[in-house]
Amino acid sequence: MDIRRLQAFAKVYDLRSFSRAGDELMLSQPTISAHIMALEEELGAQLFDRLGRTVLPTQAGDLLHRYCITIFSQLDMAKADILALSQRVSGDLVIGGSTIPAQYIIPGLVARFLKQYPEVRVDLRGGDTSEITAMVLAGDAHAGIVGAPARQPELACRSILEDQLVLVAPRAQAHAGLTGEDWRQRLTELPWVMREAGSGTRQAMEEALLAAGVDPRDLRQVLLVHSSLAVLECVAAGLGVSVVSRMAARGYLESGAVTLMETPELVMQRHFYIVHHARRYMFPALRFFLAASEVV
């Protein structure tokens, strides 16, 4: 089975278009069509339903595409291993990062890694902790750095860095603090800007609140946002208080855009973790990247 025909098939499958597949592969549309027709003749099955300008895979097409993913992955692994024999580390490396790692940890880590292994091509993808973990589990990312430990038994998970969470408030509350016996009551009366449920920051915050005897469901949520930057901008705009990583808040605190609310009874610390699939082949670029993460 000709690999060029399989590449053409996979591109048409992904893009649902013969013309766009041709553009991506720098081939003419008739050439793409000829590759697909040759495959269909060889397999004795129709791979796509051509419905006017719409292209939809058949059941046979879905099946072949699943095998193509394995075939292309095996070829990439073979190339990477052969290059590793000559002490070269190369290939594509997809790294997922939740909000704080993607902004404050991974860039420096990748810069040091690529300085040592310049032939690796890194694709950095973002999401919250649950999304990145799901990407690694599904094979859409080779590794991820997230703000909460992975619970899936298929994933290997290792702590690489400790982080402190802080309670930030609008500048107008510069002298506010949560001390005294009634601090829990006053905490629940504050307007809160909250991260989404899949956020590692939110998970760590809720665990800390529960440990301090506060039910997170009692907080008065006024806004739900999906990034630390959005949280800080909302707090700076006076919409409420929130919990964020000290790394993310540093610039806002130094500029006075937000203020720190002292919470002596509320200890909020967490770790960042690197996760990868423990049961999948670990090609050289991933092995060396995991080793590099040990010195973050």
UniProtKB/TrEMBL annotation:
Which top-rank group of organisms is this from? Bacteria
Gene Ontology MF annotations: DNA-binding transcription factor activity; transcription cis-regulatory region binding
**Keywords (A to Z) from UniProt:** DNA-binding, Transcription, Transcription regulation
Annotated Pfam families: HTH_1 (PF00126), LysR_substrate (PF03466)
Location of the HTH lysR-type domain: 1-58
Family, per entry: Belongs to the LysR transcriptional regulatory family.
- Report what the protein is called: Transcriptional regulator, LysR family
Q: Can you name the source organism?
A: Solidesulfovibrio fructosivorans JJ]
From the broadest rank down, the organism's phylogenetic lineage runs: Bacteria, Pseudomonadati, Thermodesulfobacteriota, Desulfovibrionia, Desulfovibrionales
